[in-house]
Specification:
- By secondary structure, this protein is an alpha/beta fold.
- The protein has a single domain, classed as UDP-N-acetylmuramoyl-L-alanine:D-glutamate ligase.
- It is built from eleven helices and 13 strands.
- The model has no long low-confidence stretch (mean pLDDT about 90).
């Protein structure tokens, strides 16, 4: 890779093979193959909005290797820092029987992305980005993956590059105690923070008040905070000591799998390309809303023309 090439965003994380069905997993005779992974969805969401995006991961040398790598290349992601390792790729099964009924099964122990380490963090590559992104899920992969995230964020911080983080807490993946530990470690190095009021704020903070949570975060140096609130049907954006509410783009929801990751990717894409935080949140709300009208983590993620046509008409 030409180290002079510049990227809007570089994400660090895992990819998983997705097998999905609209039936109960116990009843399904056929599962549809695709792929997902939170940091990967962030990367693809940004790339489909015409940003320049790199993805750092370890890819398993198994039957899915060529499928995954060719898919990312076809999306236009920079894969120069994808390392092939002698492990299997992770898998998740998802059943979407209705908008409220969903089953998940994860197979992500001893998988390829857990091999991520500080050796995968190329200083020049990190310095070529406007924004570096990772999540608590990336940190949960392994101790060495956690160290890789911290190294990338430290390099970014030392070189005036923005960092963005989402705890993305899930009880199926990690414990509340570990999630708090990951959060406390990375938050001093974080500029942009995405959180869910349903999962993250309740699990990581012993604070009920949104205002007090925002104050606690801004006191640590976080510049921009987005709290996603399903009960209130929108996003609370705090930027420059001011909080703005951005409503969900649509109430017509089919599948919310990874819609939060699509929001993150769209927000960072817009922000990296000169839009204000409020404008970026409005664009991201459209992107996430469109994504949630389809099925699947990546398949339903929208493209530039659709998102920005709606944004310009609002």
């Amino acid at each position: 890779m030409d180290t002079k090439e510049k990227f809007d965003i570089i994400t660090i994380g895992e990819s998983l093979i997705e097998f999905s069905t609209n039936q109960k997993l116990s009843d399904a005779e056929c599962l549809h193959k695709y792929y997902g992974g939170d940091s990967l969805v962030v990367a693809i969401a940004a790339k489909r909005l015409n940003s320049k995006v790199g993805f750092i991961t370890c890819l398993g040398d198994d039957a899915f290797k060529n499928y995954l790598l060719s898919s990312w290349i076809n999306e236009g992601l920079d894969t120069s820092h994808v390392r092939i390792v002698e492990e299997n790729n992770g898998i998740y099964l998802v059943s979407r029987q209705s908008t409220t009924e969903k089953e998940f099964i994860y197979y992500r122990k001893r998988i390829a992305p857990a091999k991520l380490s500080i050796e995968d963090i190329d200083e020049d590559y990190i310095k070529s980005a406007k924004i570096i992104y990772a999540s608590g899920i990336t940190q949960s992969l392994s101790l060495q993956a956690r160290e890789a995230v911290k190294k990338a964020f430290q390099i970014a911080k030392d070189n005036g590059i923005m960092t963005a983080y989402d705890p993305n807490y899930s009880s199926m993946i990690t414990t509340k105690e570990d999630a708090r530990e990951y959060f406390d470690e990375i938050i001093p190095l974080t500029d942009i923070l995405f959180m869910s009021s349903k999962y993250d704020t309740k699990s990581i903070f012993d604070i009920d008040s949104r205002e007090n949570i925002i104050k606690a975060l801004t006191d640590t140096g976080v510049q921009t905070i987005v709290i996603k609130s399903s009960p209130e049907r929108g996003y609370y954006l705090n930027n420059q000591q001011s909080t703005t509410f951005i409503p969900f783009y649509t109430e017509n929801i089919i599948d919310t799998t990874s819609s939060g990751d699509a929001f993150n990717g769209a927000f960072l894409s817009a922000y990296a390309n000169g839009y204000s935080a409020i404008e970026s949140a409005r664009i991201a709300s459209i992107d996430a809303g469109l994504q949630a009208q389809g099925i699947g983590a990546v398949k339903s993620t929208p493209h530039y023309e659709e998102v920005y046509k709606i944004y310009k008409e609002l």
